[in-house]
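Re-run requested by the PI after the first attempt was lost when the workstation crashed. Everything re-entered from the original request form. Ligand of interest: guanosine-5'-monophosphate.
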Amino acid sequence: MPNRLLEDPHGFKPRGVLFVLSSPSGAGKSTIAKRLLREEPDLGVSVSATTRPMRPGEEDGRDYRFVDLETFRRMREAGEFLEWAHVFNHRYGTPKAPVDEMLAAGQDVLFDIDWQGAQQLYQLRGGDVVRVFILPPSMEELRRRLTGRNTDTLEVINARMDRAEREVSHWDGYDYVIVNDDAESCFEKVHTILKAERLKRSRQTGLIGFIRGLNK
Ligand code: ADP
Ligand code: 5GP
């Protein structure tokens, strides 16, 4: 399959972008992620492992790899995670092997992980990681979106609202912070970030050879 990263006409071999999207639950991150994946064929997605129960409409292997605590611990001890964290009393982790396979196949990789994951990933993979934080326009609007989504009980919505206040305080651990007011313009901003980050000089590993060729 033709691939932007492997078939550059000038011999550049860009390193893949590890593209992290985080937000307080309900701010609109999944909506943006789904559209990015639809519009960007060279973008793969990291499917996390989690110990939380599956929600209606979710599919094992597509939304998450649903595992029990014992399996999660075994994976963690075997060093199978790039990062992992406790979120809402459950454990979530990013399996390493699929990420490296996607990068080797010339894809960029999208991560829907929280600030703890963004921090750990950045420590491990530094310059290849781009961290984008999506904010709701207001806490009232966040509650409206959580309620309108119709996937959670009032108790769960209240817990998400409590957690949102803490999550928002981690805004400064991100490279980009975007307010998701209008869905279309927010998507365009996120898409522009991905496209611009792909073009960064530091990611074009074949550049020296190309410049030498110009000056022969
Ligand atoms: P998250 O993945 O951050 O939890 P979702 O993408 O599931 O959030 O969005 C939460 C709800 O808000 C969904 O019902 C979605 O359709 C809606 N939504 C997303 N973006 C916007 C927006 N910019 N304006 C209004 N509603 C939105
Ligand atoms: P949910 O249970 O609503 O799908 O996700 C809850 C939170 O866990 C979200 O903020 C999501 O980004 C985060 N999350 C999902 N997978 C991972 C992961 O592998 N690692 C980390 N650190 N956070 C994750």
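Saved to the shared folder this time. The pocket of guanosine-5'-monophosphate (ligand 2) is lined by residues 22, 25, 48, 52, 83, 85, 87, 92-94, 112-114, 116-117 (CB under 6 Å).
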